[in-house]
Amino acid sequence: MNRRVLLQSLGMGIFAAAGWPLAQADAAADLQTAIIRDNFVQVRKLLQQGVDPNSVDERGRPALVKAMQLESLRVAQELLQAPGIHINAASPAGETALMHACIKGHIDVVKQLLALGARVNHPGWTPLHYAASADTEHSTAIAQLLLDQHAYIDAESPNKSTPLMLAAQYGSQAMVQLLLDAGADVQARNELGLSAVDFARRSDRAFMVKILEQAYQATRRSKASW
Question: Would you indicate the residue range of the signal peptide (predicted)?
């Protein structure tokens, strides 16, 4: 091998190590495939080659949000350690990595995201909505973590549904009790005029209806008397 060929070969090797020969589109596609497969080794290589950890897929989902939605937890860990990662990046639907971690019950990731500055309160659906609608082993503990971080307990979704309403229909009795004990407004109604009691009725959860009706009656103001 002559000197010129040798230098070209060495040069290409340096470029390859830096990730420069990779077409941007190909690199982005490789990242999306690695997320789907939870191939953290490939993600690590791509990040080392300079691929943007905040790349979005064809649906506009940031890499970290997609990883948490698909429960590609090993990939998520690689992304969380990537310089420049946007912890609070959201999908077009307004979903963040924290919201997906909450609804899927990944309490360790929730703690990690909170420590990194993940937002607990923002307009629209919130992490507390997502935690309240879940019924996993760690759902109530996750909700408590959010409340400890000053999550607004009566946060309103776009149609003004609150975390308590979602818990009444989808969550556990423990979740409903946690929110009630923390001061959730049992009398609140959404844009359809539905209360938490109505949400419980919609899912035929008689035991939940009873709990919420009792809480509702307890918070009603008695008529003034002389």
Answer: 1-25
